[in-house]
Structures are given as structure tokens and as C-alpha cells.
Specification:
- The structure is a homodimer.
- Chain A is an alpha/beta fold.
- Chain A has 2 domains: 1-84 and 246-312, Aldolase class I (TIM Barrel, Alpha-Beta Barrel); 103-239, TIM Barrel (Alpha-Beta Barrel), CATH 3.20.20.
- In chain A, 42% of the residues lie in helices and 14% in strands.
- The first copy, chain A, has helices spanning 13-21, 31-42, 66-72, 88-95, 112-118, 123-139, 163-179, 198-211, 228-237, 267-277, 285-299, 307-310, and strands at 8-11, 48-54, 80-85, 105-109, 146-150, 186-191, 216-221, 242-245.
- Chain A has an 8-stranded parallel sheet.
- In chain A, helix 8 (198-211) runs parallel beside helix 9 and helix 10 (267-277) runs antiparallel to helix 11.
- The longest helix of chain A is centred in the middle third of the chain and has 17 residues, at 123-139.
- Chain A is globular, with a radius of gyration of 18 Å.
- The interface between A and B is medium-sized, with 35 and 35 residues.
């Protein structure tokens, strides 16, 4: 396949970073700084920002200010502000905000071990929750058109995930969407624990595309084992044109099962890669590097981004 | 091209790391620790170790113990110990050691700005030095069969290097080798300042291979802008089966023109990538991760390797 001519990036650094950096220190990052980072990111040319998660303040106290963040940002024209949630309660909180873009996203997970840890549900309960969330969307006039599959490329506990299992779950995402009168338009394959490699990316993306040629594929790539940017390149080689990425390489999954979980693929490095390959992202690299520098000052330590160091 | 079935790694972490970590603090790393790291690396399955550079102790005081390191290591059967040098004086010092493998390597550079900073020579002087070194090899019965091209993928000061210029310098490396009765067997394309991208790697490697089909191509990839592992994957896609890499991602070029120069592509991440792709390296991943942990304790800070963190 030819490389895509343009790529859309979903900036997940705020949500990933606020969640991860606050582990054990929920007040480490000031709400005002979080808002400032989001406002800076909105001015980089990034068109979609994932800014908070609506999750249990008991489990994730560092996200207790999610509503305050939503209320505090200065909406930037042309920018979509999004959130994540793991259950109907979280979705209700998201729906209560003004200015959030709720995109009809349902999520399944390949690994029961991970689902129990991250969502506190068995896979059966998890599927039931996806169906409940889908109904809630419909009740609010939102089409169920976006599926996400967590741990699509392997699990720290369960190891490799067989391709037929991945395809079965993608089929289920389609079925849930269609059961509500919707149709899946986008599928996000998440390498939640950073276990993918470039050839696995090509194999899984290729197999999904062969079966559902009209489906737009997105990748969510953690850099846990250092391969995220190579995996992103592999995605580009397969024509993938939608990526989650995190400024500075912020983030990490608090429930991935080891302490060193790295964040998502670094936005400025992905922008740099796309710039070099002649792929338009709409993001201004210098402005994104400035955001990464601010994020480093916020969290009080160097972030994984190499580019932010090189650019100094 | 098909992926190679096996890949040879040259572990450059000691030379890169000792050189870079000692900038401004030549006594920071104890000679005994340097020797211990080399001895640990020799037991990982890595077959070639680049352990020191013979350079001016005035310019690079942290390498003043190069001879002591060579004398102190415990030679491991089947492991080749190598060194680098930038001029005839350095080569004479290397030749005076017992147990070093001197491989008939000559080096040219694409960028005069970089040559002036790193080698303290104009390009004309640099070429003359390559010829002098070639003659010195011949005088010691060493065939001139290995060429290296520094800044082959761009320069921080001079920007992109046109492909015809790269090919012209590779032709010159051939000519120097042949003028001594040798023949170039291996060409190392060095991304000295971490400016390559995966498509540029494929373009340059492809063009060199098209013109010199019998030449074995090696890559030396710095991770300055975060793309090293993607560039390595691009090299594998072009069939490259010889890579320099640095345990933990150690190193950086002291003369690259900015402080944040990252080290070489991280050995354990490259081994992990190869393991995943079914490419044999002969290196034991756990043993290499243990070396990276020891290197982190030596230098007193976290190294760029993500895998070493994930593996904890």
C-alpha cells in the first residue's frame, strides 16, 4: 500500500498523562496547569484532544477534577475535545459536560485478566457494559460508529492474542453497533501494553482490512518496549491514517501490570516522522515541542520524547 | 525484499557510553566498572564489542584509560573486541594493543562542518587521513575492506545530503580500498546526528545496493529524534543484516552540535524487535537487559531504553 497523504492525530497526552503522573500523588498536577496544557495543545493544529477520563475518583483520584478541567478550558475553534469513560456512570458524567465531543465509541478487550484489572469486569460483564453504553448513546441521539479493541496485540498476562480472536471481537463490535441501528466506521486497535511489533501490526491491520474493507483503522500504540514509532511506521505502510499519540510521550496505563508502562507514541516524534515522509498532520512541530517542554515542567521530570531534547 | 533470517549486532555501547557520559566529568566512570560492563556484554552472545576509542586525551579525557580497559578485560572466546580512532596516531595506539580486532575500516564524512568539529579536519584533510590510515593497515598486513560514511543521512548544520553526494563518497571509499589492493566488502552508513527517517533509509540503502550489489550494508543509527528503531525496521525491510547498537541506548556524539544527542539505537530493543520478527541475533535478551541495568547504575541515571524499564 502507498503511504497515506495525510494523517489525523488524536492527542491523548492530557488524559494519559494526568492519569499516570498522578498515581499515588493525586494533587501533584494543578488543575490550572492541566487546563493550560490543553489550551496550548489546542493551538498546535491538533484537531482532536482527549482531555480527561471520567472514572471512579476512588480508583483514580488524580482524575477527580475532570469536570473542573472541562469547565476551565478555553474552547478553540475547530478543535474537538473528547473524554474516555469505562462504564455508563462515566458516560453520564461526560454527557453532562458542555463542549465535549461524544463520539459513540464502544470498547471491548481481548484479555480477561486485563479487563478485570482495568475495568474491574469479566469479559462477559465487559460486553454487557459495551451494550449498555451503546444504548445510552442511542438514547442521547449519538450513533454508535466507533469501536475500540484493547490489548489487540497481546497482553502482559495472557501473552499473544490469536488473530481469529481479534477478528471475532471486531465482529462483535460491528454486531453491537448494528444492533443499535448504527454502523461501525472506525476501529481503534489498541496496543494497550506495548506488545506489538511492526510485522504484527501489518498482519492484524491487513487481516481486519481484508474482512472489512470500508472500515477506517486507528492505532493506539504504547511505547512500553520501545517499538511504538516502528509500529506507527508499520501502520503508515498499511495506509493507517488515524493515530492516538501523546505529547512528550506522556502517560502509561496504571493497570497494565508493571510500573514502567510507558506512554503512548510521542506526538512530536510522530509528527516529525510524518513531516519527513511528506504526510500532512496539520500539527505545527515547534508548537508541539513547546507543549512537550511545558508538560516536562509540569510533571517535574524528563519525558520519554527524544525530539524534545534534540530540539533544545 | 524479505526480512533477513539473521542479523549481526556490533555492540557499541561501551565506546559510545564511556565517551558521552564522561563529558565534563572524565573520572565519572571507574575503569573497573567499564571493564565489568564489557565483560558482562561479552557473555550475552554479542559477537562484536566496540569497547574504546583511541582519541586525543586532551579532547576526550574520559577515554584516556583506553589502554587500561584493553588490558583489563577478560577475553571471551568467540568475541571480537574492536576500537575506533580518528587518525593514524589513534590507529597506532590500537595496533599496539593485544587482543583487539582491527578490521581495516576507513571512514569518510559527508559534511565539512561536522568533520571540522569531530575530526578537526577539512574534508580534503579528512580524505587524506583516510588514505594514510589505509596505507597503515596495509603496512600491518590488514586488508582495507570496510568503509564507513558519517552523516550519511543528513547533518545538523548542513541539512539533507543529496543522494549523488552519498554515492560519490561511497565510490571514493571503494577507490581508496582498491588503491591499496583491497576491496570494500562492508559499508557502514552512519546516521551520526539522528536525521534519518525510514523512507530515507530505504532510499539510500536501495540506491547503494543497486550500484554495488555485492556490498554488505551496515547501519549505525542514532536515536536523536526518536526514529532509530523505525529506521532499523526500515533497514531490515531492505535486508540489512548488520547493525551497530548500544546497550541501554548509551551514548551520543559529543560533537554533534547539540547537547541532547541521544545514543545509538538501543541494543535490547533491537534484539526484542528481531526476536519478534523471527530474526536470529544470537543475543540473550535477558542477559542484555541485565547489562543495561548495570550500565544505568554505572552512569547514575536512567538510560533511554524503554525495554529495561518494562522488564523490571
Amino acid at each position: 500500500m502507498a503511504l497515506p497523504r495525510q494523517v489525523e492525530l488524536v492527542e491523548v497526552g492530557p488524559r494519559e498523562g494526568f492519569q499516570f503522573e498522578g498515581i499515588g500523588a493525586p494533587d501533584k498536577l494543578a488543575t490550572a496547569d492541566k487546563i493550560r496544557l490543553i489550551d496550548m495543545l489546542a493551538a498546535t493544529g491538533a484537531k482532536t484532544l482527549q482531555i480527561v477520563s471520567f472514572v471512579s475518583p476512588k480508583q483514580v483520584p488524580q482524575m477527580a477534577d475532570a469536570e473542573a478541567i472541562c469547565a476551565g478550558i478555553a474552547p478553540h475553534e475547530g478543535v474537538r475535545y473528547q473524554a474516555i469513560y469505562l462504564n455508563d456512570k462515566g458516560l453520564e458524567r461526560a454527557l453532562a459536560q458542555t463542549g465535549l465531543d461524544i463520539d459513540g465509541k464502544i470498547t471491548l478487550t481481548t484479555s480477561e485478566t486485563f479487563a478485570l484489572r482495568n475495568q474491574k469486569r469479566t469479559l462477559t460483564q465487559d460486553e454487557a457494559m459495551a451494550r449498555r453504553i451503546a444504548e445510552l448513546y442511542v438514547a442521547h441521539g449519538i450513533r454508535v460508529n466507533y469501536g475500540m479493541l484493547m490489548a489487540a496485540f497481546g497482553c502482559n498476562d495472557e501473552g499473544p492474542i490469536p488473530l481469529p480472536r481479534v477478528l471475532e471481537l471486531v465482529a462483535k463490535l460491528h454486531e453491537i453497533s448494528e444492533s443499535t441501528g448504527g454502523a461501525l466506521e472506525t476501529l481503534n486497535l489498541a496496543d494497550t501494553m506495548g506488545r506489538a511489533d511492526p510485522e504484527l501490526i501489518r498482519q492484524v491491520v491487513g487481516a481486519v482490512r481484508a474482512r472489512w474493507p470500508g472500515l477506517r483503522i486507528a492505532l493506539h500504540l504504547h511505547d512500553t518496549r520501545g517499538l511504538a514509532i516502528a509500529n506507527a511506521y508499520a501502520g503508515l505502510l498499511e495506509g493507517v491514517d488515524l493515530f492516538d499519540s501523546a505529547v512528550g510521550g506522556l502517560g502509561g496505563c496504571p493497570f497494565a501490570g508493571h510500573k514502567g508502562a510507558a506512554g503512548n507514541v510521542c506526538t512530536e516524534e510522530l509528527v516529525f516522522l510524518c513531516d519527513r515522509l511528506g504526510i500532512a498532520t496539520g500539527v505545527d512541530l515547534d508548537a508541539m515541542v513547546a507543549c512537550a517542554r511545558f508538560a516536562e515542567r509540569m510533571v517535574g521530570h524528563a519525558l520519554p520524547s527524544k525530539l524534545v531534547t534534540a530540539a533544545r
